[in-house]
Amino acid sequence: MIWQHGTHWEVPLEATVNGNFDKLNAGKAGLWRRRIDDQRASGLSVRAWCAANDAREHCFYWWRTRLGLSPKQRRPSKPAGVKPAPLAFAQVVLGASAAVEPIRLQLAGRRELVLPASMPLERVAKLVRAIEAAP
Q: Is residue 113 a contact partner of residue 104, using CB atoms and an 8 Å limit?
């Protein structure tokens, strides 16, 4: 599946892996292309065709995608004359009940340190080290 044209060689895309020629997949690509065509012509579902032809379903889908033979995904069409609803936003108001709880640290000697939740963790760590280092 390699063709020489003048001074350069051409390798089909499905025969390459990461830009390098893959001898193993070069032969398999043609085989799977025929299998995919056979499944389409049979009228069977992929699952039924794979079961009847001793093929692995996940391999079928992988090769169909790799070879670019997957059917196009269609979006459901919208009825004519129907306009989508306008985009709207809801106002959200945070009350006092939505306030963030403060950071509470239990220290040795049954002491408790209460800090605002907005305090950066680096500052909390520095403060705790300073308290623990104190005699």
A: yes
Phi/psi at 106 (nearest 5 deg)?
-90, 120
The answer on 57 and 14 residing in a single domain is yes
Q: Would you place residue 47 in the very low, low, confident or very high pLDDT band (cuts 50, 70, 90)?
A: very high
Number of domain units in the chain = 2
Q: Is residue 91 domain-resident?
A: no
Pairing of strands 16-17, 111-115: unpaired
* This prediction's pTM: 0.40
Residues 105 and 61 in one domain: no
Section 80-86 average pLDDT: 74
DSSP class of residue 82 equals P
Helix 23-42 × helix 57-66 angle, to 10°: 110
Residue type, 62: W
Q: Has residue 5 got a pLDDT over 70?
A: no
Exposure b/e, 84-118, CB count within 10 A at least 16 = b: eeeeeeeeeeeeeeeeeeeeeeeeeeeeeeeeeee
